[in-house]
Every structure is written in structure tokens, then in C-alpha cells.
Specification:
single chain, 380 residues, alpha/beta, Aspartate Aminotransferase, domain 2, 2 domains, 5-stranded mixed beta sheet, 42% helix, 17% strand, binds pyridoxal-5'-phosphate
């Protein structure tokens, strides 16, 4: 048997207490127990999102909330600006096009964050003020880059446009403040920093976003957020939700509140720093120039295929890393440190990486990466 260690950037490891929260007796989603569960989850998520607005729960993965954002906030033929610097920025553009929205994109080299000045320039070029929304990604998990949403928010706030942020990655592990940063829509999902199985997405809308939602003309039924708001008033969802997963999410949020958001952010920052120190010590290249604290993206040595190395490490040592997506397929390895991650997960990851590299003939001093990570970790 090879013991498995999941180090992919979603789904992430689920703590036993969270997993077992799903196994208690089922309840009606129209009864008192569910109302309490709904209230706890949405109230706590508001704290994590940094908003005074309600949070609504969707039964689906992160993309369901992305599609819900487009369906509820746009109308065919309208103009939208998309910041596109990775696989998930591309996804925004793809969904918008499907809904007949005219997409203008700021294409950012993968691995770099957008220069917020470019957003200001693009919006200024639109002299008729026809851009109705700006769509961006907090952390694009395909590149490991974190965007300066605060600065983008400052720029978009001066315009007649909504700022819609895919925070599937990063939220719950990296400081994020929807209201303070002038974000109109924030969406995320259960399976990354929230340490919960996949299946629940959630989103929050500002007052301006709700005004747009009321008059938007794209078709919507299952993802109609007006229904979510109507049922939310009674602490319910319009359709049967994933009750068991919601219980798991409630437990995960309880654990998160016990730890405290500031401590969670500090833990992720430290795990990221330890991982990056190991990568540097191994003389490997970091892919992201503005790296997020939830994953470390590395380029393997030129003569070793990324997928070959990743597959070898998974099969031989049981440590499962993420691979490249889109144009980065077979070019990178993504080491996740989001959610239920502690120092010895990082040591395990780096140690497995070293063993795999050594097996593939990469020349380095065994243990140098682990040592570098320990130098950071031991200050704890
Ligand atoms: C930044 C980002 N956005 C959106 C998604 C899509 O989420 P899902 O796969 O849950 O639909 C992901 C998934 O990895 C993601 O990382």
C-alpha cells in the first residue's frame, strides 16, 4: 500500500471532524434544524467574505457560481471587461460569450498579476461608459498568481460598472474584504480553503449588483439569485440543497472560527514561505511572479517532464500534486497548501519532490529543500 497525501489545489484534504459531520441523520431542508444550519453557515461566510450583504448558497461547484454571476448580472449584447491571465480568467470569457455578452479582455501573461493601471486605461478608453462589469479572479489556481483586487476595486468604483470576483481560490486563507475593496460580487466554493468536500458554491452581491440583477435579461432558472434571496429570508434555499455537505461546511467554519481568520492567514503565509524557500533551495523556478499563499507553482528542470515527475511521485510516494492546465499542461507542478495544511504537510511535499527529482536524475544535495522549509517552520 502507498499511503496517499492529497496536495492538489482543490479538492483539498477534509479533516475527520468535517467529513463525519455529513453522516448524521438527514433533516428536511424546510425545517427548523436546517434553518439554524443555514443561518450559521451564511452568517459565518459573511465574516470570511468581509461583507455586510447576505451570502447565498448554491448546489454546485465553483463554476456554477460563475455562471450564476453571468446569468444574473448581464444582458445579451452588453459589454464586459475580463482580466484574463490564466485558465480561470479564460473561463469568465467563455461563459460570458455563451450568454451573448461582448467581451473585451485584458490579456495578462500567465504567471503575472495584472497591472491595475491597465484596468483604468481600458475603462477610460470606453468613453461612452458602456462597460457594465469587470470580471476577475482573486487567485488564479492555474498560475498561482494573486491579483490586487483592492486596487482594482478602487479603479472600478469610479465607473458605472460592477466588479465581479471569482474567489474560489484564496478566500478563507488569504485576507479578502469584499465591502472595503468595493467588490460587487464575490463567489467561492466549498472544496479549497474551506476544507469541505466539493458540492457547494456561494456568493454575495452588493446593493448595486442587486439593482443590476433585477433588470438583467439573460435567461435563468436554477441559478436565479432572486429566488435565493426570496427563500433566504426564511433561511432556506429555493431547491433541495446538499444538506450533508452543508453540515460539513458548518463544521469546517466552526474550526476556522476557532482558529481565527488572522491566524489562518498567518499559517498560510508561513506554509507558502516554507514551500517557496524549499523550491529556491532546490534551484527550481517558481512560476508565479506575484505568488498567492495557497499554492506554489513550480517549473521542473527542463529535461524532466512535469507530468512524468508528478505521476512518478504520486505512484511511488503517494503524494498527489496538481498538474498544469490549458497552455501550462505538462509544464508545471502545483503544490497546494490551502485549507487543512500544517508544517509537516509541507515537509512531506518537499521530501516527496526531492525523492522524485533524485529518481529522475536531477543533481542536488538531498535534504536541501526540506532543510530550507524547516528553517522557516521551526520559528513556529
Ligand atoms: C480560481 C478558480 N475559479 C473557478 C474554479 C472552478 O471551480 P469548480 O471546478 O469548482 O467548478 C476553480 C477550480 O479549481 C478555481 O480554482
Amino acid at each position: 500500500m502507498v499511503k496517499k497525501y492529497l496536495m492538489t489545489p482543490g479538492p483539498t484534504p477534509v479533516p475527520a471532524a468535517v467529513a463525519s459531520a455529513q453522516t448524521v441523520d438527514m433533516v428536511s431542508h424546510r425545517g427548523r434544524e436546517f434553518h439554524e444550519l443555514y443561518q450559521y453557515v451564511t452568517k459565518t461566510l459573511r465574516e470570511v467574505v468581509g461583507t455586510s450583504h447576505e451570502v447565498y448558497l448554491l448546489t454546485g461547484s465553483g463554476t456554477s457560481a460563475m455562471e450564476a454571476a453571468v446569468a444574473n448580472l448581464t444582458s445579451p449584447g452588453e459589454k464586459a471587461l475580463v482580466i484574463r491571465g490564466g485558465h480561470f480568467g479564460n473561463r469568465w470569457a467563455d461563459i460570458l460569450k455563451e450568454y451573448g455578452v461582448m467581451v473585451r479582455a485584458i490579456d495578462v501573461e500567465w504567471g503575472r498579476a495584472v497591472n491595475p493601471k491597465l484596468v483604468a486605461e481600458r475603462l477610460a478608453e470606453d468613453t461612452e461608459n458602456e462597460t457594465r462589469a469587470v470580471f476577475t479572479t482573486f487567485v488564479d489556481t492555474s498560475t498561482g498568481v494573486v491579483q490586487d483586487v483592492e486596487e482594482i476595486g478602487r479603479i472600478v468604483a469610479d465607473k458605472n460598472a460592477l466588479l465581479v470576483v471569482d474567489a474560489v481560490s484564496g478566500l478563507g486563507a488569504v485576507d479578502y474584504r469584499m465591502d472595503e475593496w468595493n467588490v460587487d460580487v464575490t463567489l467561492s466554493a466549498s472544496q479549497k480553503s474551506f476544507m469541505t468536500p466539493p458540492g457547494i458554491a456561494f456568493m454575495s452581491l452588493s446593493g448595486n449588483a442587486w439593482k443590476v440583477c433585477e433588470r438583467a435579461k439573460c435567461p435563468r432558472y436554477y441559478w436565479d439569485l432572486r429566488k435565493c434571496r426570496q427563500f433566504g429570508e426564511k433561511h432556506e434555499t429555493p431547491f433541495t440543497p446538499a444538506v450533508a455537505t452543508l453540515r460539513a461546511l458548518a463544521k469546517a467554519l466552526e474550526l476556522m472560527m476557532e482558529e481565527g481568520l488572522a491566524n489562518i492567514f498567518a499559517r498560510h503565509e508561513k506554509m507558502a514561505r516554507a514551500t517557496r524557500a524549499a523550491v529556491n533551495a532546490l534551484a527550481l523556478r517558481l512560476f508565479a511572479l506575484n505568488p498567492a499563499d495557497v499554492l506554489t507553482v513550480i517549473r521542473p528542470p527542463d529535461d524532466i517532464g512535469a507530468d512524468e515527475l508528478r505521476g512518478h511521485i504520486a505512484r511511488t510516494y503517494g503524494v498527489v500534486f496538481g498538474g498544469g492546465q490549458g497552455q501550462l499542461k505538462d509544464r508545471i507542478i502545483r503544490i497546494a497548501h490551502m485549507g487543512a495544511v500544517g508544517p509537516f504537510d509541507i515537509i512531506t511535499a518537499v521530501s516527496a519532490l526531492e525523492a522524485g527529482l533524485a529518481d529522475k536524475g536531477y543533481v542536488f544535495e538531498l535534504g536541501v529543500g526540506v532543510g530550507a522549509a524547516e528553517e522557516i517552520i521551526k520559528e513556529m
